[in-house]
């Protein structure tokens, strides 16, 4: 009987297909490190993320466990193709109890859609969704999954809001597989996940809230929701910069991304949409937070101008467009002399770079010197303006404060300023002027590059250059 040497047996075993397959299964999965704020990946841990400049945000990401057969290549059949011809009519949407919420959504909730709502703690996200769930429970089964609050806490909030008789089913769990099974079992038409950072799966060993867990949970829930026709709303935590925590891929996976804005010390809340596959983007809804929850503010322009001082220098009014909605806002400026070598430039609600540009344009083309003055610029009511149409109103407020001359209360100003001192046109002028007329304004200073629409009872003053502003302003 021939004895095989030890080295021969080792060589034979090492090259058998079974041994190679076994070694592939037993191989340790490759671990990478991912930033929790932006999702950037690194081969090793480091304290600083070079992508988003965050510190101590990089965590270890363990890949999802793969099955032993995942390495095999399998064939597939051709996918079914659908033409654009004969497209079906729009599916009926779920209308919520709030006209403002419906406006932001684009006309209601689309069955099978995924919505992501972010905002600071205590801003009103859970309150709005609990009110919405209570209203929709009259038409379709509704599920509310909470990984942060107990069922009794949610019931106490519902009782405070007067919703204790609503047929909302509450589950206090963050287990992904349990959530998927519950949605399929109840055939829910609407479900809330509060919050997505608390959901975890047994498929990965990462802690809840990490990049791998958030990505896996969102992908599984969205897929199940689209197959069942369930409208899913995710509540997302935000970072200190105000962005939704987790990788940006989460915002790409959902159909709609919304942010709650507002000061918790003030009763007003603004819900703004930044992405919407079923409606207009940058649409806003205005709410008033009270003892009974959030209620709609149907006329936000009148609300934000209600406390405006009519005889104070440094105040101007603009009609800004927020999505498809025109809103009248008050621009406030304070210009005061200073002995500092570097004058201060402080803004709230507008871009600081825009203020620096406007002060330089006013100095060059209108003869107003701001180099020895501090400038403080604010949009009243905690609002934010990003469109260039606010340039002329900001410049008017700065000139009014510098000259200590109040602008007449019946004037509204809108237009973009160029670096050469020209006043450039802005879009949707007819909607802006009609909103100004509705609020009682008599004179509108607008760019001369467009044909002014006729609005009864409103005098339109077109100007071409910044130098013409002062003669029509006061």
Can you describe this structure?
This protein has 474 residues and is an alpha/beta fold. The protein has three domains: 27-63; 99-298, Rossmann fold; 303-473, Ribosomal Protein S5, domain 2 (2-Layer Sandwich), CATH 3.30.230.10. The chain has 13 helices and 21 strands. The protein has helices at 6-14, 17-26, 99-105, 125-136, 151-160, 176-186, 211-228, 249-253, 300-304, 352-365, 391-403, 429-438, 469-473; strands at 32-35, 41-42, 58-61, 114-119, 142-146, 168-171, 190-194, 231-236, 256-261, 268-276, 284-290, 293-296, 315-322, 325-337, 345-348, 373-379, 411-413, 416-417, 423-424, 443-447, 459-463. Strands 6-5-7-8-4-9-10-11-12 form a nine-stranded mixed β-sheet, sandwiched between helices. A four-stranded mixed β-sheet has the order 13-14-16-15. Strand 7, helix 7 and strand 8 (231-236) form a beta-alpha-beta unit. Helix 6 (176-186) runs parallel beside helix 7 (211-228) and helix 10 (352-365) crosses helix 11 (391-403). The N and C termini lie far apart (115 Å).
What is the strand and helix layout of this fold?
Blueprint: H1 6-14, H2 17-26, E1 32-35, E2 41-42, E3 58-61, H3 99-105, E4 114-119, H4 125-136, E5 142-146, H5 151-160, E6 168-171, H6 176-186, E7 190-194, H7 211-228, E8 231-236, H8 249-253, E9 256-261, E10 268-276, E11 284-290, E12 293-296, H9 300-304, E13 315-322, E14 325-337, E15 345-348, H10 352-365, E16 373-379, H11 391-403, E17 411-413, E18 416-417, E19 423-424, H12 429-438, E20 443-447, E21 459-463, H13 469-473
Parallel strand pairs: 4-8, 4-9, 5-6, 5-7, 7-8, 15-16, 17-20, 20-21
Antiparallel strand pairs: 1-2, 1-3, 9-10, 10-11, 11-12, 13-14, 14-16, 18-19
